[in-house]
């Protein structure tokens, strides 16, 4: 059972939508207010990624066993790799009194909505599928088949993200500064800190 604490903030969006960049900006500006829930994955680390910082890297066998033990809040399989948020990862952040931020996929969002965490759900939308493809190609991290599969998944994610009722807010990331400003405004409106001060303490106006 995950102990009660501030409502988690969930960021979701297709790979290449810019949600990770928005997350980094948020954690950099408010390091004492937000904590990142480090997910587990069975994929190999990319260059520059560190175990326990970007992901907890594990094997399929170990992760499947942990899922059987009920240790995960949500799991999903993406491009042949497993991803998931463990209950402990969320508890570790919430024990500090910080707002826990989750960066998860659509399937994970569906599962987290079934818990008693009452997450605030943000969907980050790319300007277009064409722009998304350009960003993914610029990364140069996947072969053509994997990239096409990722784009196919992105189209489904965008469709789900735009459906009314699936997310509390949809942020169009066609301009990073504008998108981040929208995210800050949404947080300021929804995370009034009842214990430590007013909502202006979370995201003070500039």
Automatic annotation (TrEMBL):
Coiled coil: 129-157
Catalytic EC class: transferase
SUPFAM superfamilies assigned: P-loop containing nucleoside triphosphate hydrolases
Keyword ATP-binding: yes
Gene3D superfamilies (UniProt xref): P-loop containing nucleotide triphosphate hydrolases
One GO MF term attached to the UniProt entry: ATP binding
GO cellular component term, pick one: cytosol
KW DNA-binding (keyword) present: no
Domain of life: Eukaryota
Enzyme Commission number(s) of this protein: 2.7.4.8
Domain annotation Guanylate kinase-like: ranges: 6-188
SMART domains found in the cross-reference section: GuKc
Keywords, comma-separated and alphabetical: ATP-binding, Coiled coil, Kinase, Nucleotide-binding, Transferase
Family, similarity comment: Belongs to the guanylate kinase family.
PANTHER family reported for this sequence: GUANYLATE KINASE, GUANYLATE KINASE-RELATED
NCBIfam families reported for this sequence: guanyl_kin
Protein name as it appears in the record: guanylate kinase
Organism: Plutella xylostella
Organism lineage string: Eukaryota, Metazoa, Ecdysozoa, Arthropoda, Hexapoda
